[in-house]
Design goal:
Helix content: 25-40%
Cofactor: pyridoxal 5'-phosphate
CATH superfamily of the domain at 99-380: Type I PLP-dependent aspartate aminotransferase-like (Major domain)
Largest sheet: 7 strands, mixed
CATH topology of the domain at 99-380: Aspartate Aminotransferase, domain 2
CATH class of the domain at 99-380: Alpha Beta
Structural class: alpha/beta
Protein name: 4-aminobutyrate aminotransferase
Strand content: 5-15%
Family: Belongs to the class-III pyridoxal-phosphate-dependent aminotransferase family.
Region (Disordered): 1-34
Shape: globular
EC number: 2.6.1.19
Order of helices and strands: HEEHHHHEHHEHHEHEHEEEHHEEHEEEH
Distance between the termini: 13 Å
Number of helices: 15
């Protein structure tokens, strides 16, 4: 059996959660008998087809998730990259039980009609405090899919305003009547360009830009929108530099050709800094700068989907900060670790020119915006973005050594310099994930073959010794269990 650790300890480390479990503790298989009972009961009233494990959040703390059978697992999946600062975080608990939060919960406003008196202050001291460079406004939403959909709507309205000649030009009678019949010109033939293997959500508009798995899209009508190739880089990157540069150039050329020639004119390009659900696919900063140049040249919106990559996971607060672009994206969408959602922007023409064009009852949630503000303060207090960058480098170097020892099990290791946003390909991915859970590590996959790390920002070096490679875990090809 293998006994490799991720990396050696490099000195004492002050834990963020002193009372956190020291290591995973497994009493039963997962699911155990109590979880089986709970799952059967839940299945009577709720779909359990995608259930991973039945959790007990009252007994979950820090980086550890508990179930009903006394099992405690180190969680490096974190609710699909959505828990930022640990389970049962005491700072967040204090905010959640404050009078301000109670009022926001029980008096939830329809923000478009009846915003609460301090909504601007909540946004300025929270959501907008961490706005991406160059963007100073926000449109709040309910979830990541919703954030992308309202961004798409903003792009379409902006493009048609341009074509119409400005915000003050009224809709024509033909536009008004044809829109009610889902026909042009009121419902114009325009599109959002996304990339192969992309994931931008499962609502109707966002689903038409999602290209990661057929199961997301089957049986659902879709818009006739284009998909461009996303670079398929070869690893190790340093040894394949010229080949990868040619691949990125090819993808940029095809993207520009689609923008110029696709039969439904493109209003916006949407891209993830790292394709997450589609297999943790990376591209260089030069590729994304090229996209920015193409969108500027052809006067289309550039939307960066930071739903999964945002809020510190890559060692920068926003993953696109790694690109060092002179011109910021037109819109940046966010959710997951923010615990709220929406899109950032700066161009005033992205605001609707009439009421109710970007509208629903809630238009976000002050309670979740208050929570994000508390998360930001906790990130700053513990210096978690810098910590994530350091821990990511620590994990990556250990995984490099393990990849040398187990080259058949750890293939195409990627994410160097991207914080803890690390992944690799495994020929027996599903077996690996199941085996990891048996060793007390909750971890997830993406795409067809990738194992992906999505730990919380409070994941530290001392967790590494109990995380991915417990004794025997890497011997999956030799011994099945």
């Amino acid at each position: 059996m293998a006994t490799a650790q991720v990396a050696e300890q490099t000195g004492p480390e002050q834990p963020f959660f002193p009372d956190e479990p020291f290591k995973p503790h497994m009493r039963t298989a997962i699911p155990g008998p109590e979880s089986h009972k709970a799952i059967r009961d839940l299945d009577k009233v709720f779909d359990t087809g995608s259930l991973n494990m039945m959790a007990n959040y009252q007994n979950s703390f820090g980086n550890y998730i508990a179930d009903l059978d006394g099992n405690v697992l180190l969680d490096v999946y974190a609710q699909i990259a959505s828990i930022p600062v640990g389970y049962s975080n005491p700072t967040l608990l204090a905010v959640a039980t404050s009078p301000e939060m109670a009022s926001a919960i029980i008096n939830r406003p329809a923000l478009g009609n009846f915003p609460q008196h301090d909504w601007a202050d909540i946004l300025r001291t929270g959501v907008l405090k961490v706005a991406p460079k160059g963007l100073d406004q926000v449109f709040t939403a309910m979830a990541g899919s919703d954030a992308n959909e309202v961004a798409y709507k903003a792009a379409f309205m902006w493009k048609r305003r341009q074509e119409r000649g400005g915000a003050d030009v009224e809709f024509s009678a033909e536009e008004i009547s044809s829109a009610m019949n889902n026909q042009s010109p009121g419902s114009p033939h325009m599109s959002i360009l996304s990339f192969k293997s992309a994931f931008h959500g499962r609502l109707f508009g966002s689903l038409s830009t999602t290209r990661s798995k057929p199961v997301h899209k089957l049986d659902i009508p879709a818009f006739d929108w284009p998909q461009a190739p996303f670079p398929q880089l070869k690893y190790p990157l340093a040894e394949r530099a010229s080949e990868n540069a040619a691949e990125e150039a090819r993808c940029l050329a095809e993207t520009e050709d689609l923008i110029k020639n696709f039969h439904n004119p493109v209003a916006a390009v949407v891209v993830e800094p790292i394709q997450s659900e589609g297999g943790d696919n990376h591209a260089s900063a030069a590729f994304f700068k090229g996209l920015r140049e193409i969108t500027k040249r052809h006067d289309v919106m550039f939307i960066v989907d930071e739903v999964q990559t945002g809020v510190g996971a890559t060692g920068r607060f926003w993953a696109h900060d790694h690109w060092n672009m002179a011109d910021p994206p037109d819109m940046v969408t966010f959710s997951k670790k923010a615990q709220t959602a929406g899109f950032y922007f700066v161009n005033p023409d992205l605001r609707p020119n009439k009421p109710y064009r970007q509208f629903n009852t809630w238009m976000g949630d002050p309670a979740r915006a208050i929570l994000f503000r508390a998360i930001i303060k906790e990130i700053e207090r513990l210096n978690l973005v810098e910590s994530t960058a350091q821990v990511g480098g620590y994990l990556y170097s250990g995984l490099e050594r393990l990849a040398e020892r187990y080259p058949n099990e750890i293939q195409n290791l990627r994410g160097k310099g991207q914080g803890t946003f690390i992944a690799w390909d495994s020929p027996r991915r599903e077996d690996f994930l199941k085996r990891a859970k048996g060793f007390g590590v909750n971890i997830g996959g993406s795409g067809e073959r990738a194992v992906r790390l999505r730990p919380m920002l409070v994941f530290q070096k001392h967790h590494g010794g109990f995380s991915l490679y417990r004794p025997g875990l890497c011997d999956i090809g030799k011994t099945q269990s």
